[in-house]
Write a structure and sequence with these properties.
This protein is mainly α. About 80% of the residues lie in helices and about 0% in strands. The protein is globular.
Length: about 270
């Protein structure tokens, strides 16, 4: 693997793995404590609609997927404020309609033979310089957001009613967390794919939650654990010529299983 570091596409893949791990660890922690896993799953699958639209209109894939994912996140946020008891139904609809739109527009694209596997299970070895720039911008935005509004996020995440009484706009921060989740999902699709993206954002955070006593510590540990998963999975996928996204998730699942067994033994 060391000699492979001379190749630009391997260098790009490693950078992408680390940057995606940072945002996945941070935003994944917020998804977990806010119990948004199902919401993030709906956004992840609906983003395929943006991929289809981007392919059809000749736009950058990240741009199309990001706009569609953010739009879906805002819709989900608005629905959760007004009809929370029906939220699961609407998420299912957004999930299905988003994917259907993507498939239809891919089919309508003249002469385009899309490799669905690259979007469903990731294509980290195909990360471009433009992709890295997008990821770097997202990392910076997320870090600034967490640094600037950490106290508000903490209050909203653990007790939104108390946060509202303190004058914090809980709805605004809830929506903002969903939007950042949507953008994180989009960049993570490049690494592990549409099908496995939620696993990357939840497995490291579950382990980090068990060994942390604060949200801040959970975010840091989750980002580190996610980095270990992605880099190890990337090495395995390169050595054995298997799909990188699947390798990363299997590494995570193995570590999570071992962690759970050890925890039970020590309990």
């Amino acid at each position: 693997m060391i000699e492979a570091l001379h190749y630009t596409f391997i260098q790009n893949a490693l950078l992408a793995a680390i940057m995606v791990s940072i945002v996945a660890g941070i935003i994944g922690s917020l998804i977990l404590v806010n119990k948004m896993t199902f919401l993030a799953g709906g956004i992840a699958h609906s983003s395929y609609g943006g991929i289809g639209l981007a392919i059809y209109f000749g736009l950058p894939i990240f741009f199309g997927a990001s706009m569609f994912a953010v739009f879906s996140a805002i819709i989900i946020a608005l629905i959760s404020f007004k009809q929370r008891h029906r939220l699961d139904i609407f998420i299912g609809l957004i999930w299905a309609v988003g994917m259907a739109i993507g498939i239809v527009f891919v089919d309508l694209t003249p002469g385009y033979n899309v490799d669905l596997m690259s979007y469903l299970f990731g294509s980290i070895l195909a990360v471009s310089q433009e992709d890295l720039i997008f990821m770097a911008i997202l990392v910076v935005v997320v870090l600034i957001f967490i640094h600037r509004f950490y106290k508000e996020i903490l209050a909203v995440s653990y007790d939104s009613e108390y946060a509202t009484l303190r004058g914090i706009n809980a709805k605004f921060f809830f929506t903002l967390i969903l939007i950042l989740s949507a953008l994180t999902v989009v960049v993570a699709i490049k690494v592990v794919g549409l099908i496995l993206v939620i696993a990357l954002m939840t497995m490291p955070t579950y382990i980090a939650e068990q060994i942390s006593n604060s949200l801040y510590g959970m975010m840091i540990k989750s980002a580190i654990i996610a980095s270990v998963f992605t880099v190890t999975g990337l090495i395995i996928s390169y050595q054995f010529d298997i799909t990188s996204g699947a390798a990363i998730i299997l590494v995570g699942a193995t570590v999570l299983s071992i962690f759970t067994i050890i925890k039970k033994i020590l309990a």
